[in-house]
Amino acid sequence: MIDKILLAYDGSENADSALEYLIKLNTMLKAKVFIIHVVDPTSLYSYGVDIPPQVYTDIRAHGKNILDKAIEKLKNEGMEVEGMLLEGSPATTIIENSDKLSVDMIITGSRGLSTFRSALLGSVSAKLVHDSKVPVLVVKQ
């Protein structure tokens, strides 16, 4: 039985496709939904320049806005939903929280907002599929 679903959501078109798929899927399952948006401040350091603190504040505010819109959409669909804005490496943070929340499934888009970085380090969805202890549904656009 699938009682808890975690949606990894970054606001990209592929994440929106995953959100729409979740809406269709959850009309049958009626699972509790957790949405996680992960801010990765370390990715900014990789460019080798000092980043003003306001940039981090703006990135977090943007992440909260993305998360709030997704939560509102799912609540309007009648779903029980809880959102979390977290910091860290996206795949690692998602997996750690899927364990803590004891979710039964993770849903994610096939490609997120950090396509350049993922080309160098591997995509978040690929890491989720490889490292997760629960099934991962990767939704293509």
What does this structure look like?
- With 141 residues, this protein is of the alpha/beta class.
- It has a single domain (4-139), classed as Rossmann fold (3-Layer(aba) Sandwich).
- Helices cover 51% and strands 21% of the residues.
- The protein is built from six helices and five strands, in the order E-H-E-H-H-E-H-E-H-H-E.
- It has helices spanning 13-29, 42-45, 53-76, 90-101, 115-121, 124-131; strands at residues 4-8, 32-39, 81-87, 105-109, 136-139.
- A five-stranded parallel beta sheet has the order 3-2-1-4-5, sandwiched between helices.
- Helix 4 crosses helix 6.
- The longest helix is centred in the middle third of the chain and has 24 residues, at 53-76.
- The protein starts with a strand and ends with a strand.
Write the layout of secondary structure elements.
Elements: E1 4-8, H1 13-29, E2 32-39, H2 42-45, H3 53-76, E3 81-87, H4 90-101, E4 105-109, H5 115-121, H6 124-131, E5 136-139
Parallel strand pairs: 1-2, 1-4, 2-3, 4-5
Helix pairs in contact: 4-6
| Quaternary status | single chain
Which residues form runs of ≥5 with pLDDT under 50? 115-121
- Tell me how many strands there are: 5
Q: Give the helix/strand class.
A: alpha/beta
**Shape verdict:** globular
Strand content is 15-25%
User: How many domains is the backbone divided into?
Assistant: 1
Helix amount, in percent?
40-55%
Rg for CA atoms: 15 Å
Give the number of helices.
6
Descriptors:
single chain; 141 residues; alpha/beta; Rossmann fold; five-stranded parallel β-sheet; 6 helices
